[in-house]
Amino acid sequence: MEERSFIPGIEGPMKVEVSIDPSSRRLVDLEIKPMESSRFFEVILLNREAKAVPYIASRICGICGYAHALCSAMAIEDAWRLEVPDSVRSLRELIAILSTVNSHLFHLVTLLFTWLGRSRPISLNFKRNLIELMKVKTHTIDKALNELCGDKLHPRNIVPGGFTYLPSMNRVMSTLEGVNRLNKLVYGLVEELLSFDLLREEDFKTHYVALKNETRYGLLEGCISIDSMIEIKVSNFKKYFIEQSISGSPAKLCLLYGKESYMVGALARLNVNSCQECEYRRWLHKLPSTNPYLIPIAQGVEVMKFLDIIQDLRRELRDEPRLVKPHHYPRRARGMSAIEAPRGLLYYEVEVISHKLTALDIITPTVQNLANMKDSLKYIVQRLLEGMKRAQIDEIRREAERLVQCYDPCIPCAVHVHET
After folding, report:
1. What residue numbers bound the domain in which 208 lies?
2. Backbone angles phi, psi at 23, to 5 degrees
3. N or C: which end of the chain has fewer CB within 10 A?
4. Residue 15 lies in a domain
5. Do 250 and 268 meet the contact criterion of CB atoms below 8 Å apart?
6. What are the angstrom distances between the C-alpha of 60 and each of 264, 286, 334, 344, 414?
7. Element containing residue 110 per DSSP (H, E)
8. Interval 163-202: pLDDT, tens
9. Rounded to whole angstroms, how far apart are CA atoms 20 and 18?
10. How many other C-beta atoms are found inside a 10 Å radius of the C-beta of residue 139?
11. How are beta strands 252-256 and 262-263 bridged, if at all?
12. Can you give the CATH number for the domain in which 66 is found?
């Protein structure tokens, strides 16, 4: 018996194909196939001026545009061996945090309305709080990103070495005064999500990969940590992580050591940095958490954590960041960068000749999460088959949809690879 379903409520089209043996009540096969057409960004960016790369790369994603701009700029800086001042790094961290908060809240609110009607109704009072949350987000997070970079989705002023222009920091800091109100509203949002009976309790053990910074829960700096046990340099990324093609799809998936799936994203970040997150454990029950259904809760926890960090950064950002240019452009150089995008680890590898981009490889969070999503779906579907008297296809379909929606995949980001 075969069942095919397109997953609603995610960014881009993806198909899940499930084959079940009714007599033995066993899962025969399960495949996930991103169906977005190829997007040739690695080719589009070739032979471009290096300073234009972040602006174009930000168009890869309509939600994580800031992450692509920052990561590409940092990879080119690595190729040029260009050191940026602390003021630039601090402002970039603030921008990355604002972008992540924006993405997380967008996903959580969308998830609530996607699940509305499948569980107990959302109260009228909470709907009012939800409207208030989105208003406060618009007037703080969205407005701050607009002021800092000229657009809330696609930054216009991020370049290798810093920024081409910046607004008054006092005006930006004044805009962010509403984060305390936003924090309280997010607290209620997380509590409401936890009350949904759709968040199953599961124990799906896997590997967790994220940047680890010993001094701060950061998004832009640190080593790549695997299960908080192995720490590797960004320059060694491809020695541990290997991309593979998906049959019948233009997307790829990435495997640890070429054979094992792993998770990136909010829950992976909290697991890897669990020693820093003691105050939020009550929502996740335990850290590290092995329940993929708690990814949305992890996103809510991160929002509250990041809103606290914003307050710290507001006090730190006193110096006006300046643009730093290289004294000379190397004839030929390679550079790598890895940062935490909203959905997880983002990796860029570039080759630059003089001041032009000549080679580019981008490995996005969704590419890294696809294999883990597939393995967790197999685990859940088999658990459902073992626990049901009859194989009820509708229930299996609904559960598969919920789990994929928790992962929050961005399918267009997974298929921008170029084909030769």
Report:
1. 41-414
2. -70, -45
3. C
4. no
5. no
6. 19, 35, 22, 15, 10
7. helix 86-115
8. 999 888 888 888 998 888 998 899 888 887 777 766 778 8
9. 7
10. 14
11. unpaired
12. 1.10.645.10
